[in-house]
C-alpha cells in the first residue's frame, strides 16, 4: 500500500440508502457498501472521507463534470455505461412499490401505478428517470428516502419506491414500526456499483480497480458481506445471499423481473 499524493486526493460521495449507506442511532456512517468502500480505501492507502450528499443529484452531476469524484452506490444501466469508470460491483437490489396496507387500490402490474395520484421517489436518481422514461407523470420528488417514508406514512403520497431492506431500516429509525405497508410490485433495475468520474486520470482509476480486485480475492470482501448477511437477518429479518462478488438483497428463490 502506498500513501496518496496531493494529486491522488478524492471526493467520495454516497446517498443515504439503507442498508448500503446510512446513519446509525449514534450518527455514525455505517452500511454494507460503506464498509466495502473503506476496505478498498485501506488497501490503496486512501483516507478520504465518505460524504452523504443531499440531494443525490448534486453528487451525481459533480461526478459527471469533475475528476477524482467517487460515487456509490450507483446503478449501472445502459444509459450510464459510458459516463463513468465502473470500479466494482457492490450489490444487487430489489425495488418495490409500497402503499399503506389500508389503501384500497387494485395494483397488480407496474402499469396500474400510472393511475394513482402520487409516488414518492428520490430526486435525480435512476428510479426517477426510469419512471419518467416509462411515462409516469404522477411523481413527487424527495431529497431523501426518510422524507418519502414520512410522506407515505402521513398519506401525503399514495406510494413510494424503495428497497425492502431500506424500508425496514428506515421504519425503525423513524419510529414507523407500527405503520403497515403493502408491497405492490417488485423488480430489479441495474446493479449497484462503486464508480469514479470519467475525467479521472486512468492511473488513479486503475488504482481503485486493483484495490477492489484485491479485497475480493483475499477474503476481505467475503468477511464484510457475511457480517452484513448476519446483521440484516438478525436485526431486520432481511434475507440476502452472496453471488459473484456482490451481495444480493433478497431471498435466493425470488424471481422478480429485471427491467431496463
Automatic annotation (TrEMBL):
<dbReference type="InterPro" id="IPR001638">
    <property type="entry name" value="Solute-binding_3/MltF_N"/>
</dbReference>
<feature type="domain" description="Solute-binding protein family 3/N-terminal">
    <location>
        <begin position="9"/>
        <end position="232"/>
    </location>
</feature>
<dbReference type="Pfam" id="PF00497">
    <property type="entry name" value="SBP_bac_3"/>
</dbReference>
<protein>
    <recommendedName>
        <fullName>Solute-binding protein family 3/N-terminal domain-containing protein</fullName>
    </recommendedName>
</protein>
Amino acid at each position: 500500500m502506498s500513501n496518496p499524493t496531493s494529486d491522488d486526493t478524492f471526493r467520495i460521495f454516497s446517498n443515504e440508502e439503507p442498508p448500503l449507506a446510512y446513519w446509525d442511532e449514534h450518527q455514525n456512517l455505517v452500511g454494507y457498501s460503506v464498509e466495502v468502500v473503506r476496505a478498498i480505501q485501506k488497501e490503496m492507502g486512501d483516507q478520504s472521507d465518505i460524504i452523504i450528499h443531499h440531494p443525490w443529484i448534486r453528487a451525481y452531476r459533480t461526478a459527471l463534470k469533475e475528476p477524482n469524484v467517487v460515487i456509490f452506490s450507483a446503478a449501472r444501466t445502459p444509459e450510464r455505461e459510458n459516463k463513468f469508470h465502473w470500479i466494482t460491483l457492490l450489490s444487487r437490489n430489489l425495488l418495490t412499490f409500497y402503499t399503506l396496507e389500508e389503501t384500497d387500490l387494485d395494483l397488480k402490474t407496474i402499469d396500474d401505478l400510472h393511475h394513482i395520484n402520487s409516488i414518492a421517489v428520490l430526486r435525480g436518481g435512476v428510479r426517477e428517470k426510469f419512471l419518467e422514461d416509462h411515462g409516469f407523470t404522477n411523481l413527487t420528488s424527495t431529497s431523501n428516502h426518510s422524507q418519502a417514508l414520512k410522506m407515505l406514512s402521513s398519506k401525503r403520497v399514495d406510494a413510494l419506491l424503495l428497497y425492502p431492506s431500506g424500508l425496514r431500516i428506515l421504519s425503525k429509525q423513524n419510529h414507523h414500526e407500527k405503520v403497515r405497508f403493502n408491497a405492490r410490485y417488485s423488480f430489479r433495475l441495474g446493479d449497484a456499483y462503486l464508480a469514479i468520474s470519467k475525467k479521472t486520470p486512468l492511473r488513479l482509476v486503475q488504482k481503485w480497480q486493483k484495490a477492489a480486485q484485491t479485497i475480493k480475492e483475499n477474503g476481505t470482501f467475503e468477511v464484510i458481506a457475511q457480517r452484513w448477511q448476519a446483521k440484516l437477518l438478525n436485526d431486520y429479518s432481511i434475507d440476502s445471499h452472496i453471488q459473484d462478488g456482490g451481495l444480493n438483497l433478497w431471498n435466493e428463490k425470488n424471481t422478480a423481473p429485471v427491467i431496463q
